[in-house]
């Protein structure tokens, strides 16, 4: 990881942590246990990759970070809700996330489900009402539409459904990519889209190139996750290592082999860089982020 990206990652994590804290209900407000559970999963943990991506695109486009706090929080709230629900016994049945007990272990299943529900709806409340965004009503509606599609049956939730249906099955590469374009990629793409929507007069060609960049890194992120599930360990990952293999889920290493998966990640990184060819140094953070995604160890 470059020094510039390392500094920016730390700064973005600190920024979004404060922004999330401000927008979450306080845990002394009724119902206290629910709000405590929402805060437990949303705060103090995670790489904050999606908010950082929103801020990094904003930096490339000259958009002030404070205008993007709302969209960055909205996409992270959706991400955290999805993690809470993914970890439930009915889904992946995991007891470790971001290096600490999952929500249903720390609290109980019912509270975890409700915490996820609360975070999901809070994301849309932020896009609708957050004063710091300085966005018009029309822009807010477009953001809500984009996040709803990325989160729903045509996006992340649909990808999770395909994932559950694919356990024990042999998928082709296009089928595996389609699953992850929805399950993982949709939320990464909308993190970029929320930033581009914050600049309503942006050239559609620039929007398209940034969307292709997001599609590439969304897939490379999942390829690397699959690689780490085989190569890393539980302590480093902060979640249970080998879980996908144990659950007989289709993965890139299973389909392509470990070296083939690494080549796939590198190829996606190169495609992401090509999408940024018309940008100057203002997009260096995006370039560094793409490289970090395929080189990270957790």
List keywords for this structure.
single chain; 298 residues; mainly alpha; Farnesyl Diphosphate Synthase; two-stranded antiparallel ribbon; 15 helices; 71% helix
**CATH topology tier name:** Farnesyl Diphosphate Synthase
CATH superfamily: Farnesyl Diphosphate Synthase
The structural class is mainly alpha
Mean pLDDT: 92
Helix-residue proportion: over 70%
Terminal CA distance reads: 13 Å
User: In the CATH hierarchy, what is the architecture at level 2?
Assistant: Orthogonal Bundle
Largest sheet features: 2 strands, antiparallel
How are the SSEs placed, and which strands pair?
Blueprint: H1 3-23, H2 32-42, H3 49-61, H4 65-86, E1 96-97, E2 100-101, H5 103-106, H6 109-129, H7 137-151, H8 156-165, H9 173-197, H10 204-231, H11 234-237, H12 243-246, H13 252-256, H14 258-275, H15 284-295
Antiparallel strand pairs: 1-2
Helix pairs in contact: 1-3, 1-4, 2-6, 3-4, 3-9, 3-15, 4-6, 4-9, 7-9, 8-9, 9-10, 10-14, 10-15, 14-15
Please outline what is shown here.
With 298 residues, the chain is mainly α. Helix content is 71%, strand content 1%. The model has no long low-confidence stretch (mean pLDDT 92).
């Amino acid at each position: 990881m470059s020094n510039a990206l390392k500094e920016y990652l730390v700064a973005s994590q600190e920024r979004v942590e404060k922004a999330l804290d401000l927008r979450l209900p306080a845990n002394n407000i009724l119902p206290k246990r629910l709000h405590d559970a929402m805060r437990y999963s949303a705060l103090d943990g995670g790489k904050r990759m999606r908010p950082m991506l929103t801020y990094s695109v904003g930096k490339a486009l000259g958009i002030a970070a404070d205008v993007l706090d709302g969209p960055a929080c909205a996409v992270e709230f959706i991400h955290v809700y999805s993690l809470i629900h993914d970890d439930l016994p009915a889904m992946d049945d995991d007891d470790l996330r971001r290096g600490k007990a999952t929500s249903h272990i720390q609290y109980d299943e019912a509270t975890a489900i409700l915490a996820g529900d609360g975070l999901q709806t809070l994301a849309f409340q932020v896009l609708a009402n957050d004063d710091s965004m300085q966005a018009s009503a029309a822009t807010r509606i477009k953001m809500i539409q984009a996040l709803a599609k990325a989160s729903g049956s045509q996006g992340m939730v649909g990808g999770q459904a395909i994932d559950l249906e694919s356990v024990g099955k042999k998928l082709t590469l296009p089928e595996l990519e389609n699953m992850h374009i929805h399950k993982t990629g949709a939320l990464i793409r909308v993190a970029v889209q929320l930033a581009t929507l914050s600049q309503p007069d942006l050239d559609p060609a620039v929007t398209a190139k940034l969307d292709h960049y997001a599609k590439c890194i969304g897939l490379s992120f999942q390829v690397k996750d699959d690689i780490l599930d085989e190569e890393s360990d539980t302590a480093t990952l902060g979640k249970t290592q080998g879980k996908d293999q144990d659950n007989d889920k289709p993965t890139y290493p299973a389909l392509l082999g470990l070296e083939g998966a690494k080549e796939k990640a590198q190829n996606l990184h190169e495609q992401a860089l090509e999408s940024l060819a018309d940008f100057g140094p203002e997009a260096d953070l995006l370039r560094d982020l793409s490289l970090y995604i395929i080189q990270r160890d957790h």
